[in-house]
């Protein structure tokens, strides 16, 4: 079972920031939070990941709460091309299982004009 | 650096047949994971190969099998196809470190008639 909970869908106006929440209340100390997105029937695309500090890259920012029980992915200026299903994943860094990602149902983000 | 490639991209088979799908990981990556995505079950982990050995396995019947070659390329095979095997099959590769990000290919769309 997925260790994360996400809202099933969200809307965002183009040009505005999209804030996608994720709850991972049972996360353990060595588990990272990863975000991927999947644009209609393509392979999931890596966005960003973090352990406990906030992270930013050219695609997005990741804000992780101090207790690490939740996080928010921020797309600062959403465009129509950001319409996709966004998956929040908790990844166990145990070498034996680090490549076994457990996907939940994700959040379907619809960006509109 | 080239991404993960999968062949073929689309495939149509009939019940009872078998199918082999191929995946070439990112150069230098030695871990290859396979996932099945269906509308009903979402994205589910099938198995992972590392250095030609199966390292992790999901909860799928024995009809689903795989292998990895010395150049890290991987194949997965599904025997005695069933209608329910119609899905998008995704391959992902990961670098040497457990913390390395997993990158996905575009997938193979299998339709079983």
Number of strands of chain A: 9
Structural class of chain B: mainly beta
Largest sheet of chain A: 5 strands, mixed
* Mean pLDDT, all residues of chain A: 93
Question: In angstroms, what is the radius of gyration of chain A?
Answer: 13 Å
Order of SSEs of chain A = EEEEEEEEE
**Low-pLDDT segments of chain B:** none
User: How would the global form of chain A be characterised?
Assistant: globular
Helix segment tally of chain A = 0
- Spans of chain A of 5+ residues with little confidence (pLDDT < 50)? none
What is the structural class of chain A?
mainly beta
Percent range for β-strand residues of chain A: over 45%
Strand content of chain B: over 45%
Mean pLDDT across residues of chain B:
95
Mind describing the biggest β-sheet of chain B? 7 strands, mixed
Rg from Cα of chain B: 13 Å
Tell me how many strands of chain B there are: 11
Word description of this protein:
- The complex is a heterodimer of chains A (113) and B (113).
- In chain A, 0% of the residues lie in helices and 46% in strands.
- Chain A contains no helices and nine strands.
- Chain A has strands at 9-13, 18-23, 31-38, 45-50, 55-56, 61-64, 70-75, 84-92, 107-112.
- In chain A, strand 6 and strand 7 (70-75) form a beta hairpin.
- Chain A is globular and about 45 Å long.
- Chain B is mainly β and 113 residues long.
- Helix content of chain B is 0%, strand content 54%.
- In chain B, the strands form two sheets. In chain B, strands 2, 4, 5, 6, 9, 10 and 11 form a seven-stranded mixed beta sheet that branches. Chain B has a four-stranded antiparallel beta sheet with strand order 1-3-8-7, with no helix packed on it.
- The N and C termini of chain B lie far apart (37 Å).
- The mean pLDDT of chain B is 95.
């Amino acid at each position: 079972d997925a260790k994360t909970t996400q809202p099933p869908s969200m809307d965002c106006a183009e040009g505005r920031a999209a804030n996608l929440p994720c709850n991972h209340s049972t996360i353990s100390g060595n588990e990272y939070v990863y975000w991927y997105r999947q644009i209609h029937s393509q392979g999931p695309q890596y966005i960003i990941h973090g352990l406990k500090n906030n992270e930013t890259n050219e695609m997005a920012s990741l804000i992780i709460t101090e207790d690490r029980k939740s996080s928010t992915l921020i797309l600062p200026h959403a465009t129509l091309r950001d319409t996709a299903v966004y998956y929040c994943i908790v990844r166990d860094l145990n070498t034996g299982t680090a490549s076994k990602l457990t996907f939940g149902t994700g959040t379907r983000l619809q960006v509109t004009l | 650096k080239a991404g993960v490639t999968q062949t073929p991209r689309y495939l149509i088979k009939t019940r009872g047949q078998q199918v082999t799908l191929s995946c070439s990981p990112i150069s230098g990556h030695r871990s290859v994971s396979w996932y099945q995505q269906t509308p009903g079950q979402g994205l589910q982990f099938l198995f992972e190969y590392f250095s030609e050995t199966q390292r992790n396995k999901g909860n799928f019947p024995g009809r689903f099998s795989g292998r990895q070659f010395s150049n890290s390329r991987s194949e997965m095979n599904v025997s005695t196809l069933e209608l329910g095997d119609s899905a998008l099959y995704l391959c992902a590769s990961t670098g040497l470190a457990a913390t390395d990000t997993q990158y996905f290919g575009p997938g193979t769309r299998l339709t079983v008639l």
